[in-house]
Amino acid sequence: MSVSLTVMTFNLHEDQPEDSPNSWEKRRDLCISVITSYSPIILCTQQGVKSQLDYLQQGLPGYDQFGISRKGPQDSSDEHCTIFYDKEKVELIEGGTFWLSESPSVPGSTSWGSEVPCIATWAISFFIQLSILILYYMKFQLLTLLPLVFIENHCIVNTNMDEFSPRARRRSALLTWQHIASLPPSLPVVYCGGFNTQKESTTGRFLLGRSREHGVVGDMRDVWPNARVRKNVSLIRTYHGFKGDKQGALEFLKLIFRALCLCWDRQTQDLHIDWILFRGRSLIPALCKVANDNIDGYYPSSHYPIFAEFLLPRTVRLIEPPSHTQEEN
Fold this sequence. Notes:
Helices cover 21% and strands 34% of the residues. It contains six helices and 15 strands.
């Protein structure tokens, strides 16, 4: 028997001028509609400012949120990496924010050529799900409803890395992985957000255990190639600049042409910059989808959200049927 943990990473894109067709006011209800349609247990947002996050909170009353501005708790006006969680299924134990810099505890700090402060928000929580196991005992013609409570500790890390400096991204990845590596090995971790680079970059290769950074190797896994089911494979870019599927179709045709010429490995044919990575044997990726939901060509953001479902297997011991003294006829 298994239950599932669903996660969505969603770059909200900062607000645009009011007269822009992509202003927050024009797309905010679509954002809520998309989130509601997937109903992720964990929702990680990037680039959201306070007004955007407040609107989401109002439209998603079943969620609580955790996170602070990249300038620190004293300035809530700037961008956040916020973790929303289904408050009926998740109980927050502890969490925090660190800056992707040489001074990770200093709000607003920058290093390694980054142009703006970048952060990672992390949270350790209980995932709780109540299920009903139906037991039918043929011998005694009994039907028993047995409530089962699944409790799983997990850690969520949400980030948005520097857009321009490869060195900043590499060092940010190392810093965040060191935080993850300091956690108990048995604790499942989901690490997601906007990495602003491709998975075959030095940043991606380090995190996925394919190259070294300062003498160490990451041990994360990527949901996308490991999921049993992948949806919208043709959308090879997660950033589309509000152009949506038209941009994705053009890029896909270009990639097919290059793949035929160069015989690329199919596993490397995505140019996603929004990722969901994971660590832990108890996390089994069942589904990953590039969510291209839109209304008449209008999109909720310049980035496609990424949705993933993890199976959490649990061994269930059945309760022995009640004893009966009456003999069977």
